[in-house]
Design goal:
The complex is a heterodimer of chains A (283) and B (253). Chain A is mainly alpha-helical. Chain A is 31% helix and 5% strand. In chain A, the strands form two sheets. Chain A has a three-stranded antiparallel sheet with strand order 1-2-3, with no helix packed on it. Chain A has a two-stranded antiparallel sheet with strand order 4-5. Chain B folds into three domains: 85 residues, Orthogonal Bundle (protein kinase ck2 holoenzyme, chain C, domain 1); 71 residues, N-terminal domain of TfIIb (Single Sheet); 25 residues. The chains are: A mainly alpha (283), B mainly alpha (253). Chain A: GO terms for molecular function: protein serine/threonine kinase inhibitor activity.
Amino acid sequence: MSSDPEEGYIPWIQQFCELFGHDYFVPVSQDFIEDDFNLTGLSSQVPFYREALYTILDYEVETNPTSDDAGGGGQKNQKNELPSKTILAHSAEMLYGLIHARYILTKPGLTAMASKFERNEFGSCPRFLCDGMHMIPVGATDVPGQETVRLYCPCCNDTYLPSSSRYLNIDGAFFGTSFPGLLIKMFPEIENQCAKRISRVDSSRLGLRLFGFRINELSESGPRMKWLRAYPKTEEEKEEFEQCELGIPNVLDESDGMYNSDSDMVEPDDDDDDDRTMASEGV
Amino acid sequence: MAHSHINEEYVSDSSSDFTEYWIDLFLGIKGNEYFCDIDEDYIRDRFNLTGLNQEISKLPTLIDIITDIIEIEKQPEDQRSTLEHNARVLYGLIHARYILTTRGLNKMFEKYRNGDFGYCPRVHCHLYPLLPMGLHDQPRISSVKLYCAKCEDLYNPKSGRHSVVDGAYFGTSFPAMFYQNFPQAIPVRTKDMYVPRVFGFKLHNYSKLSRWRELQRRKVEKRLLNAKPEGSRGGKIYVSSDKNDENAVNQDP
């Protein structure tokens, strides 16, 4: 993996980011990697940690530390130990991925990823009603080797598989579980874009119809998943929403007529997303 | 397909060495993978085409083209491309009607089982097969969308060549009719939801919204269980892939 210093020298990081299917990655700055504090704990997760680190940083590895079969990163040493060269390449990729997951949570990393997001490099949400909202890569876990990368759509608040199979071998842990949440917090503009899209949706048009007629909920083929994309619209729904502040209110054991008491003014309000600051009334 | 004019194949003077049936050619065009082949009897029955002459002119000629009674090469040259285009539109509009019939539904079921329409991209749907659907029954308004029965949502086709196919060629009623006819294909829904987390902590606003949605879900479940105490198939309306998450949305870390 490490490049030959004599001809056409390309830094390892740049090489890695240009590989086929690696277009979700941003180059991590050298300074970030060189700061040992940023790498705390990674040495126990990655085999041949030191050699892998030197590979990423394009250092020649002249020392041959503790392990007996690790021949260091230099080309010459590697030639007589081919298996460890592949292992080293794999370790370096894994280490870079894990550093990447940390880097994109820092300010420069978030900014770099945000401009990729802005350019729609992660793809658009396949959901029709999300109207091409840009997506954000996310991992299902922070432990490497478990799940591949997925894409989070901030508009429908759901995760999707990348549309191209070239991303199917990219580890989700290289992006981490925290990234989308932080990106949205850092750039509130994303939430505005989503709110606009959500307010445009006419929820009365949703649901399957047969020759124009809706299918009854009690039918076996009736709707069961409306809640998944629902937003509180009516007054009573908003009140209910406020009650969900800290937990799910236990209203199901009582009669269903509990809510239709004092709020007769059911006004169709579209920008439902903005009243999260509304003081909670119930409970 | 029974063809009375099968001998004509060998005497045709068209540029290609062999003549294929129009429908087979049409189905072979890239981007037309969502269509099934329509029985010729269905196309010839004028009752099935009621009202289509308002959408398209020269209906009899077009029907003859689709059913290979006349060849498009024998038509005046300046009209060929219009005729071919209109024949495709007509085929699409007949297709929308045909796939609501028993035979059409069976053909589409076969395609559905093969995954010809693709699979739901949503992670929690675990690659559930999709069905094509239109947003309007009139042509030239919107392109075809794909319906997932597991999340009951609509998706854009993955490939650009499908996003130019007219939705009216499948119609707004098709998925509903499909699942009415094949209730065994209705999935057990999942209650899994994604909540964004930062360092393991759920974001408050999103978490609140997902709690509210969970509440809505429980209401539906309760209504259904009150109406039909035995529940859906297997006694369960919703399942969760996570075994010990009975109140997963409820508890904050």
